[in-house]
Amino acid sequence: MDPADLVLRYGERVTHVERVPAREAVVEPWPEWVDPAVREMYAADGISTLWGHQAEALHHVHAGRHTVISTGTASGKSLVFQAPALTGLAAGRTGSSLRGNRMPTVLYLAPTKALAADQLRRLAGAAAFARPATVDGDNSREERAWARDHANYLLTNPDTLHHSILPGHARWTRALGGLTHVVVDECHHYRGVFGAHVAHVLRRLRRICAHYGADPTFVLSSATVADPEVFASRLTGLDVVPVTDDASPHAARTIALWEPPIIPGVDPTNPGVVRRSATTEAGELLTDLVIGKVRTLAFVRSRRGAEAVAATAQRRLGEVDPELVRRVATYRGGYLPEERRELEQRLRSGDLLGLASTNALELGIDIAGLDAVITVGFPGTRAALQQQFGRAGRSGRDSIGILVARDDPLDTFLVHHPEALLGAPVEASVFDPDNPYVLGPHLAAAAQEIPLTEDDFAMFGPRTAEGVAALEAAGWLRKRQAGWFWTKRERASDLADIRSSGGSPVQIVDAGTGRLIGTVDGGSADSTVHEGAVYVHQGDVHLVDEYDVEHGVAIVHRADPDYSTMAKSVTEIAVIDTERTEQWGDAAMSFGSVEVVNQVVSYLKRSTSGGGVLGEELLELPARTLQTKAVWWTLAPDAVSAAMEHDDVPGSAHAAEHAAIGLLPLLATCDRWDIGGVSTALHPDTGTMTVFVYDGYPGGAGFAERGYEMAARWLRVTRDAIMACECHDGCPSCVQSPKCGNGNEPLDKAGAVRLLDALLVDAPVTGDH
Ligand SMILES: [Zn+2]
Ligand SMILES: [Zn+2]
């Protein structure tokens, strides 16, 4: 049966259906300059011609232009960097392209070790001229030495480059001095604070290459990154040419958006609308697809969720056709390789018809040959959704992708505004390389690598002189004839933890076994692992016995309480510097530096079976100060009273703040947990009603700035999302927030719409309205 017809039978739950037509390929011949041995290697894999975008990108890379290729999954992006890189190595074999007396080399960077390992496997056919090696934390001493002395194709990650290769560059002279190509694969991962760190790691790499006389061509790749030219240029600090016209063929695909129905008989006004859960819905849909013999993969956010989807399907299949029960399974991280391969094999052969998985499957595991993908809950970015839907569509057969909305403002908005999901370009991957908290440690690391001089300042951006002066004043750098030197014994690169997002991580330790089960960011630990907190780690529920603030350790035990916990906090925010302001009549949008002081003071226990709040426990935790960036909106006092006569102003501002935070991920690749908010009917620094939305990281991460730049569109989308929700007084699909420090009090849904309308009266026109 055609899966699209089957899904349509669900009627009103399906809020939108769209058919993406098949696309014909544009084919081009190989350019002459690609080494025949390299072409033979591809021919052995059945690749004898190129797609149009590959030919275009090869042309740029061969001309030495830094290039970013952004085309769909499975459109052959690796070839674009492999072919020129391997051609360079093949030429080096005959000695025709020696730089000085150095043999050519290639550096490949991936965001994870698994991806680098996957690339290594794909280079197996190039053994005649490439000597590839992965360089990462898993190397033995011998492997590392071999890579240093012999490899000409290094596969690594930004972490290893930052902590090991760059600080030890004197031992990597051969590899770094010979570089012809630097590949930055899956570059959309470098966003937020991590993106800012990687931007500086790449600048340090460029500086060291120049020191050894190498001038490599950078090739960046991503299945989907917004505005690739701007993004790639900002990440590398170089002028980068974009290649975006995907000329690979694909079969037709149907996309369906799905909203779980409201459960009848539950009072819709108190405490909010109760919808059927997205996992139950997905389980039933999976059942029908399996009965229809449609090979289906369901992506679910948590392991528990994935298990629930598979269990629902198995239970219902058991009632219909017991033979089908064993043809549904769950997939999660942590399987042994042979177990993984067996599942992949069963799926490929069609023995397995339904698989519910966490996103563990997203990186490095090969599952092809599916007809349908169900995504339970918007995965955060359109890019991720496209990649998940891209899993379906085996060898030219039509496929279907279904997004099932969870109870969340962004999901609700998207299933009612398909144009924002399917027509729009992907979200901007934003980051801010000028964040002084990120810049400072990299300037220190650069100075330890090679003394810094004023000639280096342009490379590291406009705040470099200020950063160097601060490091000098602190006694970490000292100026001598040749430039600024690092004065300490410690490794300067240890100052920057490029994956951390502020504060030392807190370790979560199992009380019974003493085993470390994970870490949480220092910035969010007070509200997630305080004493008495219910803490969910990869789907497993724990209770926190003890939280040692000083040593950054939380002791937990496995438990199954019938309640969840929600921390309450008091937050004060002060404007330090208003950098930009835009007046919209009585409203004003501003962006600048703020200081946020937050203290977790208590937590609420909430029944998980619908019984509401069970109690509140006090906590004694220190106040935390965060210097960061914020966007804030104000409305003049007269306009507030005129627009909101009968409304609760604090509740309206608070509700608008929650919904806006829930929808910012539509404009920037952040998560609602990356940002915070404060709203008040009267703020001392502005003298009027103000709503602040700030980056939850020291120095900022670029999200608030993006919100400022897109403010009119952002607030319109926020208003539309609140209005579209069918609830009376606010629910998790519109103005309630799972991370509210105030227990979602007060909230005025109707007032929030009037407040946003008043803010938008004189707002600039945006393209989508
Ligand atoms: Zn609602
Ligand atoms: Zn709140």
Structural write-up:
- The two termini are 39 Å apart.
- The strands form six sheets. The protein has a seven-stranded mixed sheet with strand order 1-11-16-15-12-14-13, sandwiched between helices. It has a seven-stranded parallel sheet with strand order 6-7-5-8-9-4-10, with helices on both faces.
- It contains 25 helices and 29 strands.
- Helix content is 34%, strand content 24%.
- It is globular.
- The longest helix has 20 residues, at 192-211.
- It has 769 residues and is α/β, with parallel strands linked by helices.
- One zinc ion binds next to α22.
Q: State the share of residues found in helices, binned by percent.
A: 25-40%
Strand order of the largest sheet: 1-11-16-15-12-14-13
Quickly give the structural class.
alpha/beta
Mean pLDDT: 88
- List how many beta strands DSSP finds: 29
Quaternary status:
single chain
Summarize the structure.
By secondary structure, the chain is an alpha/beta fold. It is built from 25 helices and 29 strands. The strands form six sheets. The protein has a seven-stranded mixed sheet with strand order 1-11-16-15-12-14-13, sandwiched between helices.
